[in-house]
Each structure stands twice: as structure tokens, then as C-alpha cells.
From TrEMBL:
Parts of the chain that traverse the membrane: 54-74, 80-102, 114-135, 155-181, 193-215, 275-293, 313-331, 352-371, 489-509, 521-541, 553-577
InterPro entries, alphabetized: MFS_trans_sf, POT_fam, PTR2_symporter_CS
Keyword flag rRNA-binding: no
Domain of life: Eukaryota
UniProt organism field: Cyprinus carpio carpio
Protein name per Swiss-Prot or TrEMBL: Solute carrier family 15 member 1a
């Protein structure tokens, strides 16, 4: 019997605090990673972005490794401890790699041996990816293991609170670590304080581990049942081979193709594999949701840069966790109970389908915003056109004729305007508020806010420095961005509503439909849908874009609607199961473990029928 508080096992307190600290550590480090690549290692934008995406993809591929270790070998508890140690070592390694003084022998403020810093940071990132991905499927499943059969309502609330902790950790760290980076620190020279920005996440990871260990005495720990993954693979392999051997129509058909493993494998294992395969089959369309969801960080960010408003980076990095923190309680406490009161069965798979439709609507909203933005954007010359600007300061009107075969290229960048050699200069700056022309002691100052996205030309007559700055003419070549960033809020709201319906439910569903010894494996399968979604984004980005961005948004929205229709058909044919009940049934048929079975039957009878309905459970025999 586990210690309880308000109907919840006390042990889950340690698990949710552990998750909060771990997510703080992960997202905090991620928030400054590209900046570290760009401004510390001095990589270019392309290399920095590629390595960043490769790292994120690795973090969502390693869960399968963690799940195999947990379900087949160490059990969830030990896997979480060992991989958290690897994770913490990775974070510390990463933080050390950012200390510029280590290799700054000439004390000029920049590291002298970049190879050392690159090698150390790559080692750190690999350890972090192994740790964070490895523990990810285990922590959620381990949290679920703390609940007993009669606590299914509390189990659902746990997954919501778990998701809240993920986003609370992510929100705080995304706000804090960039501020830490902006501090100055160093032994020989003062530089931007990357060691602090990476060091705090490392400390949080150590705290996360300590909190998890502190709960040791209270956890329900399930032992792994041997090398389950290897047995699963062998069993599937045998079923396929056996089916092929008996392909002639003279052999009687079997109810399920996995039944061809009956000759050699335990019925219980076959039943468990059937449960897992059914859920994995259902996962096939799911990456499409993540394909749209993860474009928040790419296409939508770029969209924001063509809009007006000064809070781009803060808005982009915090709007999703803030909305999650608001929407999860509203959905859990208000919307879902209300739907249930209306007598509608809003089962998990229906919620996930509706979540997908919300994400599709978010992209329609993004397309509408894009159409508004496009109206305000200047017409840039295409790859087969040139653009000429002729400034006429002559006293009379001139006619301009253009010979189509001649190309004119004026190119000069910099801040010095020479009177004879270069008379034209382009300067691109962020946050331009002041613009001064300095010539010895004399100067002209233009002090006002220059709009984002705008382009200005200043025409300086030869007389300017002798007396008046008034004679300088300012021409607005391109208007500043005028569509306000607040217009993006509906799309963020819609996609986050979709996330709450899709992702929180998917997390619960993956746990509830998995047999006891494969809970982590199904969690890993669920996380893999995210990895595949990210890979699709990379491929689509590589394959190029439609000529109009709004058309691309609408294409993605239509694709997701099509996928959600397919998913809803698959979901219609899916029968919710109670894995524990099926396992007990199989054992009964095999005449095994009567005492164990009696206990399970009793527990099942005790189950609250209402709670079952809430989950849309239809019992079935697999
Ligand atoms: C469910 C995601 C794959 C991962 C999740 N992210 C969020 O909750 C973002 N809102 C996480 O565990 O970090």
C-alpha cells in the first residue's frame, strides 16, 4: 500500500518536481545553445541551425534506447537514476566547454583553441541527448506506475499536471537563461557569461536527480521481465516465418497473423504484442501533427520577423508554455467535464482527432495573417529582374530609358560615406533609434524610431556640413512592417489548444493501452512520432517551398485535415482495452497463477464504472 495524500500517491510529488527541474535544465540549455554556437564558437547561421536541429532530433530518437534498457534490463527506477547521472555529467561538460578562459592563453577575450571547446561541447550534447531522451519515456511511465487500478481519474490528472510541470520548467528557464548569458563574467577578461547560462541548467539537473532519489522509499517499482524487446522481435519474426511457411490455402486461417506464433511462444506474450502493435499502427498518421506543430519555431518565427512589434523573441519562446499553463486547467476542469455532462463521449482518440483539427485551423489562421503581411511587403525583383533607383536632384524633369540587356550593380557596405569613390552605402541595423552623420566636430543627428523592416535613403547635398542639416532629404524606400505581431496570437492559441487535446491525451493513451511490461516502450513509440514529425519538417524545408508562403500554410492545413480523417477512421475501428484484464484472461486460459489472478479479478471488480466511461473504455478480447 502506498502513502497517499488527497487520493494521490505521495511519491508522484517527487516525480513531478523531478520533471520540472529536468525540463528547466533541458529548455534552459536549448535557449542559449544556438547563441553559443553562433557567438562563442563563431559558427555561421547554417552550421549553428543544422547542429541544433540534429541535437533536438537525437533527443527524440534516444527514448527508444531508454525504454529498451528500462523494460528489458534495469527497470524504470534504475534507468532514470543512471541516465540522469549521464545527463548531469553532460550538462556539466557543456558548461565547462563554455569557459573561454580555459584556452585563452593570450587573454584577448576569445578562446585560442576552438577544437577543445567544440569537442567538449559535442561530448556534452551527446551525453545530454542520451540522458534526456533516455529518461523521457521512463519518467512518465514510472509516474503512471505509482497509481493503483481504482485511481484512473487521478492518473489522468497526473498526466495533465506532469504536462504543466514540463511547460512551467520550460517557461521559466527560457526567460532566465538568456538573461544569465547577458551578464559579464570571466577570470582574465569579462565576456558574456555562457558558463552561468549553461551552469544553472546543470545545477537544476543535479537537483532533479537528488529530488528523484529522495523519493526512493516511496515508489512502486516494477521489475523488468527479462529481455522483453528481444523476445518481442523473435516472436514477431517467428509469426511471419510460420505464416509464410503455411501460405497454402489448405491451412486454416487464424484470427490474427500473430497467432502464427502460437506453436512456439507464450500466449501472454503474443497477446501483449498484439496490444502494442495495435497502438503503434494507430500512431502511423500522428507525425503529421508534429510536422505542423514544430513549425512554430521555424516558419512562424520567420513570419514574426516581417511583422511589427518589439517583443519577437520573448513572444515566440514563451507564448506556448504560457498558453499551456492556462489551457490545461481550463480543459481539465471546465471543458472536458462540460462535454461529459452534455452526454457526449469525448474519448481519448476523439480528443486527439479534434486536436489535429485545431492545429490545421492554426495553419489556416497563419495563412490569413500571411496574406495580410504580403499586402504590405515591397515587391522585390525576382531572379530574372533587376531593380534600379534613380534619384533626380537636377533642376528639371528627366526621361529614363532602360536597355534591357545591361546590368547595373552598385554594391558598397559600411558606414563610411566617401564623397568621390563610393557615394552609396547600405547599413542594416537592429533597433535603430539614432542616426548621426559625423564630420570632424560637425554632425547632424536624426533621433527617432526607424520602423522594423523599413529601408531609408538619405540624400546628402554637397552643402550639408557647412550649415544646415535640414537640406538632407530622407526617402522611405520600403515601408516599415505594419501588420502587428498580436495577429499571431490566434494561431498560437489554436495550436496550443490542439497540443493540449492531442499531446496530453496521447501521453495518457500511450500509458493506459500498454501492457505492464511495455509501458516505457509505448511511451518511446509516442515520442518517436515527434521525432519523425521533425524529420518531415527538415525534408520539406530542404525540398523547397511553394512560391507563396500562405499557400504552403494552407497545404499543410489540408494535409493535416486529410490525415485526421484517416486517423478518425482508424480510431473508429480501435477498441479500447484494459491490458491488465486481458493479461489476466490469458493467464486464466493458461491456468496460471491462480492467486495472482484472483487478486487482479478483485481489483477489476472494484473499478469504478464511471471512471471507465470517462475514458471511453470498451472491454474486448484481443
Ligand atoms: C510533447 C512534446 C513532444 C514534448 C514536450 N513539449 C511541450 O510540452 C511543449 N509545449 C516536452 O516534454 O518537452
Amino acid at each position: 500500500m502506498t502513502a497517499e495524500c488527497c487520493g494521490y500517491p505521495i511519491s508522484i510529488f517527487f516525480i513531478v518536481v523531478n520533471e520540472f527541474c529536468e525540463r528547466f535544465s533541458y529548455y534552459g540549455m536549448r535557449a542559449v545553445l544556438v547563441l553559443y554556437f553562433r557567438y562563442f564558437l563563431l559558427w555561421d547561421d547554417d552550421l549553428a541551425t543544422s547542429i541544433y536541429h540534429a541535437f533536438v532530433a537525437l533527443c527524440y530518437l534516444t527514448p527508444i534506447l531508454g525504454a529498451i534498457i528500462a523494460d528489458s534490463w534495469l527497470g524504470k527506477f534504475k534507468t532514470i537514476i543512471y541516465l540522469s547521472i549521464v545527463y548531469a555529467i553532460g550538462q556539466v561538460t557543456m558548461a565547462i566547454s563554455t569557459i573561454h578562459d580555459i584556452t585563452d592563453a593570450n587573454r584577448d577575450g576569445t578562446p585560442d583553441n576552438f577544437t577543445f571547446h567544440i569537442a567538449l561541447s559535442m561530448l556534452g550534447l551527446i551525453l545530454i541527448a542520451l540522458g534526456t531522451g533516455g529518461i523521457k519515456p521512463c519518467v512518465a511511465a514510472f509516474g503512471g506506475d505509482q497509481f493503483q487500478e481504482h485511481q484512473s481519474r487521478q492518473l489522468n490528472t497526473f498526466f495533465s499536471v506532469f504536462y504543466l510541470c514540463i511547460n512551467a520548467g520550460s517557461l521559466l528557464s527560457t526567460l532566465i537563461t538568456p538573461v544569465l548569458r547577458a551578464q559579464e563574467c570571466g577570470i582574465h577578461t569579462q565576456q558574456q557569461c555562457y558558463p552561468l547560462a549553461f551552469g544553472v541548467p546543470a545545477v537544476l539537473m543535479v537537483i532533479s536527480l537528488v529530488v528523484f532519489i529522495a523519493g526512493s522509499g516511496m515508489y512502486v517499482k516494477t521489475d523488468p521481465e527479462g529481455n522483453i524487446m528481444w523476445s518481442v522481435c523473435k516472436c514477431i519474426g517467428f509469426a511471419i516465418k510460420n505464416r509464410f511457411r503455411h501460405r497454402s490455402s489448405s491451412y486454416p486461417k487464424r484470427e490474427h497473423w500473430m497467432d502464427w506464433a502460437n506453436e512456439k511462444y507464450d500466449k501472454l506474450l503474443i497477446a501483449q504484442i498484439k496490444m502494442v502493435l495495435k497502438v503503434l499502427f494507430l500512431y502511423i498518421p500522428l507525425p503529421m501533427f508534429w510536422t505542423l506543430f514544430d513549425q512554430k519555431g521555424s516558419r512562424w518565427t520567420l513570419q514574426a520577423t516581417t511583422m511589427s512589434g518589439d517583443f519577437v523573441s520573448i513572444l515566440i519562446s514563451t507564448v506556448n508554455p504560457i498558453l499551456i499553463l492556462t489551457l490545461v486547467p481550463i480543459m481539465d476542469r471546465l471543458i472536458f467535464p462540460l462535454i461529459q455532462k452534455c452526454g457526449l463521449n469525448f474519448s481519448p482518440l476523439k480528443r486527439m482527432t479534434v486536436g489535429m483539427l485545431f492545429a490545421a485551423m492554426a495553419f489556416v489562421s497563419a495563412a490569413l495573417v500571411q496574406i495580410e503581411i504580403d499586402k504590405t511587403l515591397p515587391n522585390f525583383p525576382s531572379s530574372s529582374e533587376s531593380q534600379l533607383k534613380v534619384v533626380n536632384t537636377y533642376s528639371t524633369t528627366l526621361n529614363v530609358t532602360i536597355s534591357p540587356n545591361e546590368h547595373l550593380l552598385i554594391e558598397s557596405f559600411g558606414v563610411q560615406l566617401h564623397t568621390s569613390k563610393h557615394t552609396y552605402s547600405t547599413i542594416s541595423c537592429m533597433f535603430v533609434n539614432d542616426f548621426s552623420l559625423i564630420h570632424g566636430e560637425q554632425w547632424c543627428e536624426f533621433s527617432r524610431k526607424f520602423g522594423f523592416g523599413a529601408s531609408y535613403t538619405f540624400l546628402i547635398p554637397s552643402t550639408v556640413f557647412s550649415d544646415d542639416c535640414e537640406s538632407i532629404t530622407e526617402v522611405e524606400d520600403m515601408k516599415p512592417n505594419s501588420v502587428h505581431m498580436a495577429l499571431q496570437i490566434p494561431q498560437y492559441f489554436l495550436i496550443t489548444t490542439g497540443e493540449v487535446m492531442f499531446s496530453v491525451t496521447g501521453l495518457q493513451f500511450s500509458y493506459s493501452q500498454a501492457p505492464k511490461n511495455m509501458k516505457s516502450v509505448l511511451q518511446a513509440g509516442w515520442l518517436c512520432t515527434n521525432a519523425v514529425g521533425n524529420i518531415i519538417v527538415l525534408i520539406v524545408a530542404e525540398l523547397g517551398k511553394l512560391p507563396k508562403q500562405w499557400a504552403e500554410y494552407l497545404l499543410f492545413a489540408s494535409l493535416l485535415v486529410a490525415v485526421s480523417i484517416i486517423f478518425s477512421i482508424m480510431a473508429y475501428f480501435y477498441t479500447y482495452i484494459d491490458p491488465a484484464e486481458i493479461e489476466a484472461q490469458v493467464r486464466k486460459e493458461q491456468g496460471l497463477e491462480p492467486e495472482e489472478m484472483e487478486k487482479e479479478t478483485l481489483e477489476m471488480e472494484e473499478k469504478d464504472e464511471d471512471q471507465k466511461n470517462e475514458q471511453g473504455v470498451k472491454q474486448t478480447k484481443i
